[in-house]
Write a structure and sequence with these properties.
Helix 2 packs across helix 3. The chain has 5 helices and 12 strands. The chain is an alpha+beta fold.
Length: about 270
Amino acid sequence: MLRVGMWGVVALVTAVVLSGCSNKGRLAPVDDHSIGGVRGAVRVMPGAENAGKPGYYTVKPGDTLIRIGMDSGQSGRDIARWNKLDNPNLIETGQVLRVAPPAPDAPVARPAASPATTTAAAPMPAASASTATPPAAIAAPSAAEDAISFQWPARGNLISGFDESKNKGLDIGGKVGDPVLAAADGRVVYAGAGLRGYGNLIILKHNNTYLTAYAHNQTLLVKEDQVIKRGQKIAEMGNSDADQVKLHFEIRRQGKPVDPAKYLSAN
């Protein structure tokens, strides 16, 4: 059995005490998640200075530019251009986007670097009070814009009518391949399948007041920026992202869904 003298015990206890003192106050490292290494700093979201102003929109969870465009009556591509988005597919919750055209001849700020991580959205223009573009108000529709004439976009039985909370348009039945027609003259602002629940979708912009949407198509026959005439065949009916063959048709007035039957009944 190992014997330790009195002085050896004293030396051992002293070493333990000194070791404890030397580590006093030394804790495990803590990750610094603050911005720029400054603890407690709060990140300012891109465009935050415009939050709540007319003509601007604060991004919510699940938003896409296509959805924001439909809800504001604008083209998603135009919104990306007005906000200088490097990647229109990357927008961030809390980001504030311009959703109305800038004032004529107003300077548009260049994008500034965002302090977000590599998964963050593309930067928005950073503007101070002295350089910011004046907030764009959404103009009231003129009588000429409101007088637009819409025709039925398809021939078939009406499956579902308009319900502001449950169905934002009309559902028209038919067979796969039946023609889908433009309800009025316009320009294609979206053609694709990027909006969940709509399948193969076409959105036409008719003027500064009205958009129409044509969903669940089998085939799309037009491209973005193409000018379309009333009655032109733009798609073929299908059941993409739907439980049956149908055309889901919406009319949006300044981004708000309205009952298409009230606009189509006289045609």
